[in-house]
Amino acid sequence: MINFKKVGIIFLASGFILSGCTTKDSNTTSTPVEKKEIKAISLEDFAKNLSNSEYQFIDTRDDEAYNGFKVDNVKNGGHLKNSIQYSASFIGKVNKDKEAKFVSDKGLDKNKKIVVYDTNKDNIDKVSDKFASLGYEVYKFEDYKTFADNDANKANIVAYPEYQNLVSPKWVKDVQDGKKPETYNNKDYAIFEVSWGEGDKAINYKEHIKGAYHFNTDWIEDGPIWNLRSADEIKKNLLKQGITSDKTIIIYSDDASAGFRVNWALKWAGVKDVRVMNGGLENWKAAGFETEKTVNTPKEASDFGVNVPAHPEYDISRAKEMAEKVKNEGIKLVSIRSWDEYTGKTSGYDYIEKAGEPQGAIYGFAGSNKGDMSDYYDPDGTLRNPQEIYNLWKGQGIAETDKIALYCGTGWRNAIPWFMTQLTGRANTYFYDGGWNDWQLEGSLPVDINKDKGAKPDAKNDFK
């Protein structure tokens, strides 16, 4: 079989200490800017100014802490309402010529006081220094744990409803080591590297997390549309891999789209606890954890535990059904495809004949081609903050309350924003599996060739 899918992308005193000293710094931008001295803010003033429009609050922690995990044993996990995330792990990974715009695109305003917080002082220092070198007025807050441990502050802290779905390499390693990391209450788990091809031939499985199995994407889908296989076929294939509804399944993938598609399929089938490891194998290796090249074979299971699919509502399979829902239910189609696909310059695939989009579809960002989802990823290879994506969608005319159906060419790329909407509890979001492939094969449905759309909207994520 021709490998249509395999494409690689790499994939968180009671007042201010004031000083009027400034320095010049020309290392991070082509034009020298005034680097202001970094100041400190007390716990009292931090809390007092949370609703002050003259302040912006920056969370420098990784995704898992920002999303809701109680990292560093904070009592109340999550992030400050309306805070901006700029993980310390971005430092050194953004092109210096593009840093000023990249930081500004996060929403930072040089007319406001920037308060940087974290439970890790080193992270605070790194990010504070970077912002100060770019000309921002920066205040460090080093007592966030005390703030987050106080139940009186809970109303100011937001945790995403399904934050447990996205986990760190450290969380996965703790599971392997027999520990009970936060939100893990099971006794049975399996880790799968997800990509196309059989285990001994799949390129991305040649080096993998020690003990991980391989998951071939062919087990859940087949051509020519590349929709989900039948429920019976998928159930059979999952059981062969020892996957049941009650086992915790941990997924990672170098091609992030593949991992998130399998995540969606497993939830559709009825696996109750599916976790996606953020950042893929590179993030695992960066944490210093062990890999291997051994082909591991799971023990086959006999009883899946629930009828498949347990959640048929997760899938709008075919084009005609999707078109009817657009017409009768007011669902907006959101294209998670490249700009060249959206504007009809290419179909995106050598096996998809026609170019175009379903009539009325709205551009929802993606990357430069069918194997690229760079609009959705941060400089450290982890998932981008969902709120940044929602802000982009708002600019495209997609409101928070709209019913939307996400699609791409064949159901891989749209799995990433679908995961985001589930993570954050965004309602009225649907997954259209057939995508452009099924729409153009159907032949009778209306099509737009958006050649007059001009330049691609700014994804506000240019760091390379």
TrEMBL record:
<dbReference type="InterPro" id="IPR045078">
    <property type="entry name" value="TST/MPST-like"/>
</dbReference>
<feature type="domain" description="Rhodanese">
    <location>
        <begin position="185"/>
        <end position="293"/>
    </location>
</feature>
<dbReference type="Pfam" id="PF00581">
    <property type="entry name" value="Rhodanese"/>
</dbReference>
<keyword id="KW-0808">Transferase</keyword>
<feature type="domain" description="Rhodanese">
    <location>
        <begin position="51"/>
        <end position="153"/>
    </location>
</feature>
<feature type="domain" description="Rhodanese">
    <location>
        <begin position="327"/>
        <end position="448"/>
    </location>
</feature>
<protein>
    <submittedName>
        <fullName>Sulfurtransferase</fullName>
    </submittedName>
</protein>
<keyword id="KW-0677">Repeat</keyword>
<dbReference type="InterPro" id="IPR001763">
    <property type="entry name" value="Rhodanese-like_dom"/>
</dbReference>
<dbReference type="InterPro" id="IPR036873">
    <property type="entry name" value="Rhodanese-like_dom_sf"/>
</dbReference>
